[in-house]
Amino acid sequence: MATPFTTDRSFLSMTYRRIASPLVAALAALLMAPLQPALAQQGAGDGGVLLNRIVALVEGGVVLQSELDAQVELVTGQLRAQGTRLPPESVLRQQVLETLIVQELQMQRAQSIGIRVSDEELNTALQRVAERNGISLTELPGALTSQGIDYGRYRQQMRKEMIIERLRQRDVVARIAVSEREIERWLREQDADKYDRTEYDISQILVALPADAGPKAVEEAEARVNELHTRLLNGEDFADVAVASSEGQQALAGGRLGWRRGEQLPRNFFATIRELEPGEISDPVKSSSGYHIFRLNDTRGSEKKVVELQTHARHILLQPNEVMDDAAVRDRLDEIRARIVAGESFEDVARLESEDPGSAPTGGDLGWTGRGDFVPEFEEQLARLEPGEISEPFRSPFGWHLVQVLARERRDTTEELRRRKAVDAIRASKQEQETELWLRRMRDEAWVEIRGG
Predict the structure, then answer these.
(1) C-alpha–C-alpha distance, residues 176 and 439, integer Å
(2) Which tens digit of pLDDT belongs to each residue from 8-61?
(3) 3-state DSSP call for residue 215?
(4) Residue range 231-279, pLDDT digits in tens
(5) Going from the N-terminus, what domains does the chain have, and what CATH number goes with each?
(6) Three-state SS string across 70-131, please?
(7) Are the CB atoms for 242 and 254 separated by under 8 Å?
């Protein structure tokens, strides 16, 4: 089972930065997410019936023609606005259909394990979007409408993006292990300046390989990536080729990965990217997920963190699953809280009941943490509590919690911050490839029947 907590506490450090980005980025995210199907009405003698052709059966769900058409139209508009050359329509529709299939699989997985986003959580995320753009939440619908975006549809897509993000945190990020040896090596390399603190704006083209690829599949992938690399060297636009040919998550965004610190990149990627000049394209690089071609778009510096007011807390985590829904989990935590209030040891109960393998063995201890370490839902609860006080059950993206504040004081966190930064950087360096592999496994193991497109 995925765990949102480890002793380094970084799993709760995810905030919705992508959702809280400027409105232009938020709208771009919308364009990359599937639309709620809008049934097309076709005439049928007595006034018409609602019909909509199924283009793909995906496990227990479907992708509809109207959904595919609407998404192709939106992606086409976005690519034209970016000045990116459109691939052949058949290629674009295939790329969009595959995106919709994978997103449908993720939504089914999220639903099966009880991941949801409440209206209150959705409104909070939308409030952040509005605030970052200098407007109020009540003004957001008008701002979206002025850019041709329906507010109701935007809410639906925001909810879907948040659900998928929570699923990936649970199924991917929470499973990325970071060893003490990796931390120590990262710190030594920082001290030796083997990694700089430069940030790199990167795009990539991925030719994917399954984990069990045989010699023939490897040979075909090598030939494919070399052919794409030659086309790029001959002057074809990187974004155009990525849209038409990349198998990465960001293909329809022209392969754009965005800004990454050097320390966040896998070592073999960093060794290649740090040698590039802005605008330059790398030779193909092999990884566990396939063959990559990188383009360095730009570089910039980064900043340091400082000492902070910290809170020492412990918690108990329970997660909804196929057997226990949200209501059942909350009732269970109410019972656990009553036992602790009646005199049972929080530490002993956490060891027995908590589903967080990272903290349960130490009685739920989260150690000393600062502002920004946890997701907003968890931080809000911590801020309300006085030392010794136990919260009521509450939900975060990772499940249901009880939390107790043990102490709060200003501390010198220099070494802790270095180690936390190491863990975050190591995990970030693994996240891209782990997500690609997770999505590919999900797609390969799913029953999908494509009926058109």
Answers:
(1) 15
(2) 332 333 222 222 233 333 333 433 333 333 333 333 344 433 457 899 999 989
(3) helix
(4) 999 999 999 999 999 998 888 889 999 898 887 788 888 889 988 889 9
(5) 10-38+50-175 (1.10.4030.10), 192-304+419-447 (3.10.50.40), 308-411 (3.10.50.40)
(6) HHHHHHHHHHHHHCCCCCCHHHHHHHHHHHHHHHHHHHHHHHHCCCCCCHHHHHHHHHHHHH
(7) yes
